[in-house]
Amino acid sequence: MLNELPKYMAISLILTLIIECSMAWALKVRDKKDMLNVALVNVFTNPLVVCFSFLSGFFYGSDARIGATLYLELFAFISEALIYRKTLSFRRLNPFLLSLILNATSYLSGLVINKIIY
Question: CA 9: distance to chain centroid?
């Protein structure tokens, strides 16, 4: 199962990039630099969240995975919002609201995809 982690991380990152960049576009984020920042911030946070969530479940069980995922998603939301506040020229939405919408969309989409596949 542990040997599945790299594949799981790659799939998660690709889907997250597709979902969050699409949602950012739907929210009228149009500047190329802003879209690049949305993608890059996910390249930073997504592998950390997925890896640590996966490993906590692998080593400590599903209850630990759920708890770790909650904290890790909170970390991703806050860190992404802070980065958006510093880097994005997009001002239609507060950076914290933008981060919340993008993260909630990708997280909930991931739950649905996992229910369908597994």
Answer: 11
Kindly give the residue spans of alpha helices, DSSP state H, lying in the chain.
5-26, 32-60, 62-87, 95-117
Quote the CA–CA distance of 21 and 37 in Å, as a whole number: 10
Give the C-alpha separation, 2 to 51, whole Å.
11
Q: List the structure tokens of 34.
A: 């802003």
Quick: pLDDT tens for 38-89: 999 999 999 999 999 999 999 999 999 999 999 999 999 999 999 999 999 9
Q: How far apart are CA 42 and CA 84, in angstroms?
A: 11
pTM of the model: 0.94
